[in-house]
Specification:
The chain contains 17 helices and nine strands. By secondary structure, it is an alpha/beta fold. Strands 1-2-3-7-4 form a five-stranded mixed beta sheet, sandwiched between helices. α7 runs antiparallel to α13. The longest helix is centred in the middle third of the chain and has 32 residues, at about 255-285. It is globular and about 60 Å long.
């Protein structure tokens, strides 16, 4: 049988917040596969590259479900793509991957959009004239505009009240979902709903976002031209028309609403958080920032960065990879569930049990990253300074539930990061302390900080 750790009395408040590290430490004692008792539910934790790839890739179908988690079920209603399961999830994932490719993911079209958006971001950073500012809303707005372009064929000004409201609601939900109260709510929902309003706050935010989305696609339906599909919403509406009536409809208004909110939220949050880690780390390690800028000057000069430049910039590529590894944005991964009884490494995992494929255990594995606890770009460089891939680099997870926007995110990170470092040197405000402790949230972002963007030209 699996080793069983009763979590109820062992986890302190701090351990709950830093659950990735907590679970990783348990794996050192109990091995790569063990169970935790969370309230009345058992959870299987899988640690280490070999075990996680065995589960998510070799046994991909068996581990492709999503568990019943109270807060997520109330917010996402098992629709869309992130927290849906079974045939509904498969239909939405196929549609999403196909449509993202059609509208430029990994192609020159979307690269041009990101380049244009990076110019707006440069202008915004210049407006602070070297004075300290918090970058979170500006980065959120810039990254959001890339997904909004794909979803709606438009962009928002950074001060647009609609965009700011949507971004703030998304940020609040990400923060709420990672709080100790949310953990307690998910563990004892019938009891904790009387003691916390975390569910009401999250659902209120999501309902406002959904109202905006419904209004948007209602307007687009009135202007729909099946021969001129402008964006992802148009493509969905065309599929909706084509879908033959049957008891299992996938292209419903409910699925469209949730799919758009999933793509907007997830597509904004992870890339924004990674960039925020990146600029904080550049301030913390100015010698690394200087090396990146030297490579930018040598390869790109004053021209606009392009994705093709990446192959000529091994050090910058290594730094971006290390930002993603060190930042460890989704340390516990999104929760999985078994879709059937699964025989896994000598254990029988029953259908429907929640599974945590712990990304921290891979990204911070000292067998794969010699200075795993440090920010060390050389993890991705050989002795000659050439970029080298590392099989343990899986920040987007692996298998059938891996991030569908991985290629888009890679393009965003490279173009935004290089464009901003081409134009600015980032420094901490005088007297500021740069804290690398992750903030509380469902994703592991940095603590709030301010920075100074000093123009280079």
């Amino acid at each position: 049988m699996l080793y069983n750790v009763n979590q109820n009395w062992k986890i302190t408040l701090k351990s709950r917040i830093q659950s990735g590290t907590f679970h990783y430490n348990l794996s050192k004692k109990y091995g790569p596969v063990y169970t935790l008792q969370l309230g009345v539910e058992k959870v299987v934790v899988i640690c280490g590259l070999e075990a996680i790839k065995d589960a998510l890739v070799n046994h991909g179908d068996g581990f492709s479900g999503r568990p019943k988690v109270a807060l997520f079920d109330e917010i996402f209603k098992r629709q869309g793509i992130l927290f849906a399961s079974n045939d509904n999830w498969r239909a939405m994932r196929r549609f999403t991957l196909s449509t993202l490719r059609d509208f430029g993911m990994g192609k020159e079209t979307i690269e041009n959009n990101i380049s244009e958006e990076s110019n707006f971001l440069v202008q915004k950073f210049r407006s602070y004239k070297g004075e300290p500012f918090d970058n979170i809303l500006n980065l959120n707005a810039a990254v959001s505009n890339i997904m909004v372009t794909i979803l709606l064929s438009k962009r928002f000004d950074y001060e647009d009240p609609t965009l700011l409201k949507l971004v703030k609601m998304n940020n609040e939900n990400v923060q709420l979902a990672g709080t100790p109260m949310a953990t307690l709510y998910n563990t004892y929902p019938s009891v904790m709903r009387w003691f916390t309003n975390v569910s009401q706050k999250a659902c209120r935010n999501m309902n406002e976002l959904h109202a905006f989305i419904r209004e948007t696609f209602t307007n687009q339906r009135e202007q729909l031209d099946v021969n001129d599909q402008r964006n992802l919403i148009d493509s969905f509406l065309v599929k909706q028309r084509e879908e033959k009536p049957n008891p299992k409809l996938y292209f419903t208004n409910e699925n469209l609403t949730m799919l758009v909110s999933d793509l907007f939220g997830a597509g904004t949050e992870t890339s924004t958080t990674t960039l925020r880690w990146g600029f904080l780390l550049m301030m913390k390690y100015p010698e690394i920032q200087k090396k990146v800028q030297s490579e930018i000057d040598k390869v790109i000069g004053s021209n606009a960065p392009q994705v093709i430049h990446r192959r000529e910039m091994p050090y910058t590529d290594a730094v971006i990879h290390e930002i993603q590894r060190f930042g460890n944005i989704v340390p516990t991964n999104l929760p999985h569930a078994t879709t059937q009884d699964v025989n896994f490494r000598g254990y029988l995992l029953p259908k429907g049990i929640q599974v945590i494929p712990l990304l921290t255990s891979v990204l911070y594995d000292k067998n794969h990253f010699v200075k795993a606890d440090d920010f060390y770009p050389e993890h991705f460089l050989d002795s000659s300074g050439n970029f080298v891939r590392n099989e343990a680099f899986i920040p987007f997870s692996a298998g059938k539930r891996s991030c569908p926007g991985e290629n888009l995110a890679k393009m965003e990170l490279f173009l935004f990061f290089t464009r901003l470092l081409q134009n600015f040197t980032f420094k901490a405000p005088p007297g500021a302390t740069l804290d690398l402790t992750p903030a509380v949230g469902f994703t592991a972002g940095p603590m709030p900080y301010k920075m100074c963007a000093i123009p280079r030209v």
